[in-house]
């Protein structure tokens, strides 16, 4: 069984993460101002999740695992590892509908568009009008 190390991205490894997204999810292009956490395994980079900081909140975006590792529970390990990051400030995600149960197991719940910050609500509406089947979700820390 492979052992994984989940940790914040070292800035020097940004090009590796950019290449990982370009290979497995080209629309999810990472940006240098994002807070990125990565999953390393014996074969190198296995996954990543990004946090886009905004003035009053953060957006969890672009969670990505290597295709061969999907369905192994590694996404749960990644979401468990970033719980302290999620609890730092109001956190949202715009989840693809099939992934809402996954996020719900880690403290996210569906919210109405009116509950989103204005900028995020506009982004959500734009994505939905372009045909993406997304669910707006907000993180609530466990008591």
Automatic annotation (TrEMBL):
Q: Which GO terms describe its molecular function?
A: acyltransferase activity, transferring groups other than amino-acyl groups
Q: Which Gene3D superfamilies has this protein been placed in?
A: 3.40.630.30
Pfam hit, one: Acetyltransf_7
Enumerate the spans annotated as N-acetyltransferase domain.
1-141
Q: Note the superkingdom of the native organism.
A: Bacteria
InterPro entries registered for this protein in UniProt: Acyl_CoA_acyltransferase, GNAT_dom
Protein name (database record): N-acetyltransferase domain-containing protein
Annotated source species: Salinivibrio kushneri
């Amino acid at each position: 069984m492979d052992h994984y190390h989940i940790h914040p991205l070292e800035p020097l490894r940004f090009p590796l993460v950019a290449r990982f997204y370009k290979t497995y999810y080209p629309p999810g292009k990472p940006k240098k101002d994002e807070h990125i956490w990565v999953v390393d395994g014996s074969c190198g980079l296995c996954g990543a999740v990004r946090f886009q900081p905004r003035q009053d909140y953060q957006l969890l975006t672009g969670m990505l695992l290597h295709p061969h590792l999907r369905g192994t529970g590694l996404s749960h390990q990644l979401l468990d590892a970033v719980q302290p990051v999620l609890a730092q400030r109001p956190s949202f995600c715009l989840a693809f509908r099939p992934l809402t149960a996954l996020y719900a197991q880690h403290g996210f719940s569906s919210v109405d568009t009116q509950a989103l910050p204005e900028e995020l609500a506009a982004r959500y509406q734009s994505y939905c009008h372009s045909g993406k089947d997304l669910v707006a979700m907000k993180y609530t820390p466990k008591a």
